[in-house]
Write a structure and sequence with these properties.
single chain, 226 residues, mainly alpha, 4 strands, globular
């Protein structure tokens, strides 16, 4: 039987606090395999943006093809991380936020940077492209804010999306990839350049980005989730 002297005193016993008590969030300790896969989605998006920037400096068509190619890989990782999370039956708020941030880069910023690289570079073009990216931000924020209240099946999947998911922007990327393969970019962009006023030029092709962004933030459009 232990006596009182066998127990460490209150003054000498080390105090142990978990991360939440200390107000500290351990990033590494809270990482799951699915989160690492999500980060790879973000890596693809960033690499695509850099490839678009390199093309602006080098005019090397291989850089443009690299910018195009990284985004479908981002979609693969975006699809795969959810499957891994459900397979391993672990997910977290961290993973949800990582997914949204990675999607914003790969399917929002990267397609906009690509559009700029292929020739949509006027001031009005950049206004429309900014609108597209902001719609992506708003769409992802709305999803995060409402996902807890969305109806789900037995596996935890929601039944539908409100508005088009941001990865649908890869449709725009596919269209631009076709034009690039046909040599129809820069001064040869379909629709050419229209002048709305003496100093206000616009590429009509940029309106497909405006449409994509508008569909993302639609409240009435519901897309079944696969």
């Amino acid at each position: 039987m232990s006596t009182k002297d066998d127990q460490p005193s209150m003054d000498t016993q080390p105090k142990k606090y978990n991360d939440q008590q200390q107000g500290h969030f351990s990033l590494v300790r809270n990482f799951y395999i699915a989160d690492v896969i999500t980060l790879m989605n973000g890596v693809c998006g960033v690499m695509s943006v850099f490839a678009s920037m390199r093309y602006l400096l080098t005019s090397d068509i291989h850089d443009l093809y690299s910018a195009l190619g990284f985004m479908p890989f981002g979609l693969f990782f975006d699809f795969f991380d959810g499957r891994v999370a459900r397979w391993r039956k672990n997910s977290s708020i961290l993973g949800q936020e990582l997914d949204s941030l990675a999607d914003l880069i790969s399917f929002g910023v990267a397609p906009a940077a690509l559009a700029f690289a292929v020739g949509m570079r006027t001031y009005l073009d950049t206004v429309v492209l900014t609108y597209f990216v902001c719609c992506g931000i708003a769409r992802l924020a709305r999803f995060n804010a409402t996902v807890a209240s969305q109806p789900k099946d037995t596996t935890g999947k929601i039944s539908h999306f409100e508005g088009t998911p941001i990865p649908t922007s890869l449709t725009l990327v596919a269209i631009l990839a076709y034009f690039v393969s046909q040599g129809r970019f820069l001064d040869a962009l379909p629709g050419q350049l229209i002048q709305l006023a003496p100093t206000w030029d616009l590429h009509p092709l940029v309106f497909m980005y405006a449409l994509s962004g508008t569909l993302m933030v639609s409240k009435t459009l519901r897309i079944p989730k696969p």
